[in-house]
Design brief:
Distance between the termini: 49 Å
Shape: globular
Organism: Ferirhizobium litorale
Pfam family, one: Glyoxalase
Oligomer: single chain
Radius of gyration: 18 Å
CATH topology: 2,3-Dihydroxybiphenyl 1,2-Dioxygenase, domain 1
Domain VOC: 7-132, 153-271
Strand content: 35-45%
InterPro entries: Extradiol_RC_dioxygenase, Glyas_Bleomycin-R_OHBP_Dase, Glyas_Fos-R_dOase_dom, VOC_core
Protein name: VOC family protein
Strand order of the largest sheet: 2-3-4-1-13-16-15-14
Amino acid sequence: MLNQIKGLHHVTSMADDARTNNQFFTHALGLRRVKKTVNFDAPDVYHLYYGDEVGTPGSVMTYFPFPQMGLGRPGTGEVGTTLFSVPKNSLGYWSERLSGLGVEGLKTAEQFGEKRLHFAGPNGDGFALVEVTEDKRAPWLHGGIDADHAIRGFHSVAMRLNDDGAMTELLKYMNYEVVDTADGVKRLAVNGGNGADVIELESMPNVSRALGGAGSVHHVAFAVENRAKQLEVRKALMDTGYQVTPVIDRDYFWAIYFRTPGGVLFEIATNEPGFDRDEDTAHLGEALKLPTQHEHLRALLEKHLQPIDSN
């Protein structure tokens, strides 16, 4: 079993408009933009990161906003819902806030004994807020939302699969254990994880495979402490038969990727070096930061990339 994995690191999705995406996460949800950079493989497209004050692993939602990208088609083989942790008794506040901002898809529910508020992102992205009694993670408090209501980080991701059998076995190997089943949904969790340590699986054998696009999750990343732990995980996965990429330097973490049996793309990302490696904590996410290999394109990219701040 891979005891190096402690929960989620980040979730990366796609969007069709950078300004709308930025406004939704920084204003509607009150998260901090902790990095404004570009896609390593398509530098004419932003890579935007949102999270808590410092972008703590387990709090970071990231986006590739491809201009005018077509909407994705929901289905199996994907993360269908990304869930955030909020304090107990805060869903009334959130329902009123999101409704007032015109957010669609608002629906209350209760699952595994937890109250939830489901809602849709700008591109139909599946999100939910989950009331959690004892989440001691510190929220970002300069996004217009007070400490009694602010998002603490991820609670979980919920995957839609044709069959959850192989994914269950993989997650067990990755330090998760099945802790509950309700209404056809299987819940797995990491014991002693980082707070973002729950995964939910739903088998949907009669549903077509998802087609990626705006509003779709591109990949989900799991957290390991450092590069040494990551290499241990990579070797173990390869020894088990998975095709795993070489280690890739993503500036703010190192990453490896592999495709799971259910079709979802997994990443294993390091907690080091963090988002303050090239910006002071007080100014995270303000300047356009470029990977070294794309720095020579700065003048061109600054003209091309859509301004995303209201000022």
